[in-house]
Predict the 3D structure of the following.
Amino acid sequence: MVHLRVLTTNDWPLWREVRLAALSEAPHAFKSRLADWHNGGEERWRARLAMPSTYNVVALLEGQTVGVAAGLRGDADACELRSVWVSPRARGRSVGDRLVAAVEKWARQAGAATLKLAVIPDNEPAVALYQRNGFSDTGELGDLLSDGRTRERLRVKVLR
Ligand SMILES: CC(C)(COP(=O)(O)OP(=O)(O)OC[C@H]1O[C@@H](n2cnc3c(N)ncnc32)[C@H](O)[C@@H]1OP(=O)(O)O)[C@@H](O)C(=O)NCCC(=O)NCCS
């Protein structure tokens, strides 16, 4: 049975475990690189979780992290969905849907008008996850990835 847990700064080992797993398993999906993080010490992981106006949630299966998602408060009206990953062993069980819904609920409670995200256009499982959860392609391009060619595309869900 997969359950979700919202993290505090003291949960930094869980955050480190799941983020390193995500960056190792799906480097193509993220702007952050494993090399940027794998030597980070406790203070760095704690500092990430202690960032104000953030929400960090993991999915756990039999005590092990199998998924993650984060919410960041941007400007006054917008929140951002980041770092979505589900371990291959837990895929296809709506864990992604539950993580996205948790961040959306947090964003609504924070009073955000929109929840935004950036996704690499050929990442079909991720695009499908966001499409069925109501995130529309804005047509806007996001950051250039480290390959120097690919650009993310921005999606948004209007919350109010
Ligand atoms: C995107 C992601 C979170 C979706 O995982 P999920 O929510 O468990 O997937 P779903 O429940 O939506 O699975 C739907 C279907 O796609 C399949 N699927 C999911 N992810 C897949 C993948 N990466 N490759 C191939 N098939 C995948 C599932 O087996 C399932 O098949 P079914 O419809 O025949 O049952 C997951 O694929 C992932 O972590 N990918 C790598 C990281 C990533 O891309 N993150 C998003 C960054 S923007």
